[in-house]
């Protein structure tokens, strides 16, 4: 459908000079479409106006437009920044990596995704990695490939990124999918956070239904093997009430990849003693050791 709006503005406000507890309107800047994403960028303001990405600078009567990019396909719903690199989320075409070249005052897309994701939230995990959640309840971790990194270093001006277009006018560089998991609920918040003092950082999410969950990284190969085998045995011992296959559910849209279902592993403590002993014996451990492993993984990051 076509969005129609009578008037759209970006309001600039400042804290009061007296007590600093009140906001004072400085000016309003009219824009062409609804501004759905704002982000601070090197002392300026990045604004997503419909499918246009603009950089504004502060003026006396209104914001001054300094740069504009028109390569985003549909509608910008989120903007994140890391140095001169910009991550833009599109509501139908996943995420796009852009680079701002200060010498030429231009932004160009140098990498995008291979799947059309209806993004609701996205956050940068590091300079090369991004976590993306869509409205169908999926969460994916994407990373720039090694070729894309070399491409950036070999093309400091960005001119090659403008003319070297990929298939269907997409970017010439593509993101690699590291992890994929179907949560089952639309994610409304996604960010890196530390939930306990002195704890490790984890990826925390919240959904429209009120669920608060987190994705935590494994720190050793031993832990990966242990929880993968525990998840495999729990799929057989604790089948869903309605009979649906657990693996098929977590792969509702895209096959699950690189993620172990911690909720399913936690069901181990609710099994009958005989089943707990049977699963523990398959793992060459005692039932108490399996429960202790689950508790240690939980208390390291959350509670």
Low-confidence stretches: none
The count of strands amounts to 17
- Global mean pLDDT: 88
The separation of the N and C termini measures 45 Å
> With helices defined by DSSP (H or I, 4 residues minimum), what is the helix count?
7
User: How is the largest sheet built, in terms of strand order?
Assistant: 7-8-9-10-14-13-12-11
Shape: elongated
Strand fraction: 35-45%
Largest sheet: 8 strands, mixed
Provide the helix percentage. 10-25%
**If you compute it from the alpha carbons, what radius of gyration comes out, rounded to the nearest whole angstrom?**
23 Å
Describe the structure.
The protein is of the alpha+beta class. The protein contains 7 helices and 17 strands. The strands form 4 sheets. It has an 8-stranded mixed β-sheet with strand order 7-8-9-10-14-13-12-11. Strands 3-4-5-6 form a 4-stranded antiparallel β-sheet, with no helix packed on it. A 3-stranded antiparallel β-sheet has the order 15-16-17, with no helix packed on it. Strand 11 and strand 12 form a beta hairpin. The longest helix has 17 residues. The two termini are 45 Å apart. The model has no long low-confidence stretch (mean pLDDT 88).
């Amino acid at each position: 459908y076509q969005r129609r709006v009578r008037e759209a503005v970006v309001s600039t406000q400042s804290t009061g000079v007296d007590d600093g507890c009140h906001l004072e309107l400085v000016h309003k800047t009219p824009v062409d479409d609804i501004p759905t994403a704002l982000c601070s960028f090197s002392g300026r303001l990045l604004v997503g106006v419909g499918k246009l990405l603009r950089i504004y600078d502060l003026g006396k009567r209104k914001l001054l437009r300094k740069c504009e990019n028109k390569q985003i396909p549909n509608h910008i719903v989120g903007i994140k920044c890391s140095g001169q690199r910009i991550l833009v989320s599109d509501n139908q075409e996943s995420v796009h990596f852009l680079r701002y070249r200060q010498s030429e005052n231009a932004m160009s897309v140098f990498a995008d995704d291979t799947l059309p994701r209806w993004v609701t939230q996205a956050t940068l995990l590091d300079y090369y990695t991004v976590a993306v959640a869509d409205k169908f309840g999926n969460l994916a971790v994407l990373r720039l490939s090694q070729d894309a990194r070399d491409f950036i270093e070999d093309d400091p001006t960005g001119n090659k990124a403008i003319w070297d277009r990929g298939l269907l006018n997409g970017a010439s560089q593509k993101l690699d999918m590291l992890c994929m998991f179907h949560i089952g609920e639309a994610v409304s918040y996604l960010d890196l956070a530390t939930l306990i003092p002195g704890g490790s950082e984890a990826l925390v999410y919240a959904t429209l239904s009120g669920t608060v969950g987190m994705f935590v990284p494994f720190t050793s190969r031993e832990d990966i093997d242990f929880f993968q085998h525990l998840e495999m045995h729990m799929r057989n011992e604790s089948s869903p009430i309605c009979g649906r296959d657990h693996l098929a559910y977590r792969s509702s849209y895209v096959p699950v990849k690189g993620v172990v279902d911690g909720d399913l592993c936690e069901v181990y403590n609710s099994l009958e003693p005989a089943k707990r002993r049977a699963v523990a014996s398959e793992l060459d451990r005692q039932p108490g050791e399996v429960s202790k492993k689950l508790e240690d993984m939980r208390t390291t990051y959350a509670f």
